[in-house]
Design brief:
With 378 residues, the chain is of the alpha/beta class. Strand 1, helix 4 and strand 2 form a beta-alpha-beta unit. It has twelve helices and 15 strands.
């Protein structure tokens, strides 16, 4: 039996050529795209009208609680087949483009371009922002405190290595308030100018990334120097200039700096996530409305007496308030004193939460609310 020529038409069960059916479907997709474009611009016009109303009463352009409610509503109304975990990024980008018509948000994050902090900023705000790229976490806090950036994005904890101590220390000292959070799956790739691992003398990355990949590095590059730098993207920039240097960074950084992915996913834990918080000066931060999945972040200290730390938990148990994080840090007073960072589930407008906060405040020698904000559940 003779082979069918490769250029012969293929037919579907209904007898029509496949190319004909594909052509019809593509025409329909083009028509739907045009409808989507029309609706997108209608939404943008409404966003512009909202912006004009906001200007009259001084309302902020960006409300994380409002955007969380919009995404929740859309997901609950989603009939499929688009998956719900695809809805949030689509709508965030849509809202970002519409929000930019009111005014582009200046967002500070740890640079250079290609860091996970940049990716977290884009995931949270969408791409229609003005990036304020900072050389250190300290500079993110400074830029946001000085209002040369509207918001800052900083890492707060990693599922493998725990808290980012510098971020906690700066939150304690700064006039910034947490207004949101986002969580990012962090995949560290070994990046290099040349192919292969031969000749690598230095692995440059942020200290957290080096710690998260220490098992793999010890096994596969035991002789290489582990050089801590300000960010993973900075390590990628260095690797692009010297073939003896490899970096631990994202695929985005590889593309940005023209590097090869010599080995993907070298982190020791497969499910490696980093949580980032969004910060803004308390003077201009608008209290978030309750969304049904909220968090309150506190920092407190108590007198050095027996049972003092235990007593911190009693008001929470009495009023049925769940605690999702309890972290101690030295108070840097020179007196072996500690402060405690606490995350509570709930919103201050809830009666049981308000009562627990009042009792907690009364027994603390230091009490500071770092922020009340929607949790990242999308």
């Amino acid at each position: 039996m003779a082979d069918t020529p490769s250029n012969a038409p293929h037919f579907q069960p209904d007898g029509r050529p496949v190319d004909e059916q594909l052509g019809e479907l593509r025409v329909k997709i083009d028509a739907v795209d045009q409808q989507l474009l029309t609706l997108l611009n209608q939404r943008a016009q409404l966003a512009q009208a909202v912006g004009e109303v906001k200007k009259l009463d001084g309302s902020p352009v960006f409300r994380p609680d409002r955007e969380a409610q919009v995404i929740d509503r859309v997901k609950n109304a989603n009939p499929g087949p688009v998956r719900n975990d695809s809805i949030a990024p689509i709508w965030r980008e849509l809202m970002s483009a519409c929000r930019a018509l009111e005014g582009r948000q200046r967002v500070a994050f740890l640079g250079p371009i290609g860091t996970f902090s940049e990716q977290a900023a884009l995931n949270y705000f969408g791409s229609s922002i003005d990036a304020v790229v900072c050389p250190s976490i300290d500079e993110v806090f400074r830029a946001t405190s000085a209002q040369s950036a509207d918001f800052g994005v900083v890492p707060i904890e990693n599922s493998t290595e725990g808290v980012v101590a510098r971020s906690l220390d700066l939150l304690l000292q700064s006039p910034l308030s947490i207004v949101g959070e986002t969580s990012l799956m962090v995949t560290h790739n070994l990046l290099r100018k040349d192919l292969g691992r031969e000749g690598i003398e230095v692995v440059a990355a942020h200290p957290q990334a080096l710690a998260q990949c220490q098992g793999w590095l010890s096994q596969h590059l035991p002789q290489a120097e582990r050089r801590a730098v300000s960010s993973n993207a900075e390590g990628a920039r260095m690797a692009a200039q010297d073939p003896r240097i490899a970096a631990l960074a994202s695929e985005r950084a590889a593309s940005q700096y023209g590097l090869h992915v010599v080995q993907p996913a070298v982190q020791d834990e497969a499910h490696n996530r980093t949580r980032f918080v969004i910060v803004r000066p308390q003077a201009v931060a608008t209290p978030a409305a309750p969304t049904g999945h909220d968090c309150i972040s506190l920092v407190v200290s108590v007198d050095n007496r027996p049972g003092a730390v235990h007593d911190l938990l009693v008001p929470l148990k009495r009023h049925g308030v769940s605690m999702s994080r309890f972290e101690s840090r030295p108070a840097r007073s020179g007196q072996w004193e500690y402060v405690f960072f606490i995350d509570l589930a709930g919103h201050p407008v809830q009666d049981n939460v308000a009562a627990a906060l009042d009792e907690l405040r009364a027994q603390c020698s230091f009490f500071k609310v770092l922020g009340s904000y929607p949790l990242d559940v999308h």
